[in-house]
Design a protein that fits this description.
130 residues, mainly alpha, 4 helices, 65% helix, rod-shaped, disordered N terminus
Length: 130
């Protein structure tokens, strides 16, 4: 009887909130989930920024392509020939592409205008690789 009473005292003295091995595993998993959630947010942002960079690159490529041919057309018209880029007209067919504000979002200038300039590509390289 004394032994049973002593056992009850030991059990009663144990803290009620002692972590079991399962509780420790759950806590570790919860910590891992929080870390992974933070990593996912960072990766989602990186993907969004990358898409903006891709859109800006595409728009600038279109700008430079059109600007190049528009310049060729101007030279052709100056020499009395018909335009190559937009034959059958007296104006070049230059239309700036809508980049959906991608270049503005990543703070890269557009290459709109003549003569064509490729400096915008250095801005893009600097954006992607610092």
């Amino acid at each position: 009887m004394a032994l049973a009473a002593a056992a009850l005292c030991v059990v009663a003295a144990a803290p009620a909130n002692a972590a079991t091995p399962t509780d420790k595993k759950i806590a570790a998993l919860q910590k891992q989930v929080q870390t992974l959630q933070k990593q996912v947010k960072v990766l989602q942002l990186a993907i969004a920024v990358n898409f903006a960079g891709d859109a800006c690159f595409a728009a600038n490529t279109g700008d430079i392509f059109q600007s190049t041919w528009s310049t060729v057309d101007d030279l052709a018209k100056d020499s009395g020939q018909r335009p190559y880029f937009n034959p059958g007209t007296t104006t070049s067919g230059y239309q700036a592409l809508d980049d959906k504000s991608a270049c503005k979002d990543i703070e890269v200038a557009r290459a709109i205008g003549k003569p064509p300039v490729a400096t915008v590509y250095q801005q893009l390289v600097n954006f992607f690789y610092g």
